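We both want to read discrete structure tokens more fluently, so let's practise on a single case. Once you have written the record down, we can walk along the chain together.
***
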Amino acid sequence: MPPFSALLRERAPAKVNLTLRVLGRRTDGYHDLSSVVVFAGTGDRLALAPGGALALAVEGAGAMALAGEADNLVLRAARELAERVPGLVVGRFTLVKRLPVAAGLGGGSADAAAALRLLARANGLPADDGRLFEAALATGSDVPACLHGRSCLMEGRGETLTPLASPRFGAVLVNPRVAVATAAIFRALALVPGTQRVAPAAFPLNASRGELLGWLAGEPNDLEPPARALAPVLGEVEEALRGTAGARLVRMSGSGATMFALYDDCRAAAAAAKAIAGLHPAWWVTSTVLG
């Protein structure tokens, strides 16, 4: 197999939900969401050696967590696209897994989106080919946003994306190495099919950093309370983040159990990450940029 540096390569950046409102549960079982999504400077990496049978090798710090997974989202995305593009050239993927698994960072969805971008490059498909979006949505609700790869408002079950302009923040991501299954969180939320909730306030377009932080403070992650019930350690993570200098907002991302804090700049975020990692060496801690 060619060396990693010789392959087609894509980044798979972590997805962070600055807000996540659950507006109801549809009769088809899916939940209607409204979420402001941004992407981090940290993430997984994916490579493709085009040609031959579809295959996947996983390397990196998170490889062991995926060892028993029979249907990785990378493979699922490739199969969904192959159903829509006759004669699609596939090949062997190599995933370097850096993000924690089942962490609310959309790692698997980001990997799947990276796979679709790689297959598009290998097959000469334009980035706006509708079959890429169709395959993304069929793979998972977060995959379309990860395929878009830029700040957006994600609505419905993930099929409606509205681009947003968001200021860049320094950030610290902390996962206590506790995996939380998304399905378990939604079961704990216990919404009856047909339930509808009040829609969130409109995103403040052209807002200053301070105005955006004020709006974010009033728009929570509705999955955080059930996640805290299933993973009480989140309270300890929140306390550690709030204890750092310059933390402007502390919240859980996605369905957890990763929490983030926003800072005005990368220097403050790096100092905070260093302090938390020193106090909690067993946790996964990284500083990054969100935007």
The chain has two domains: 4-163, 169-290.
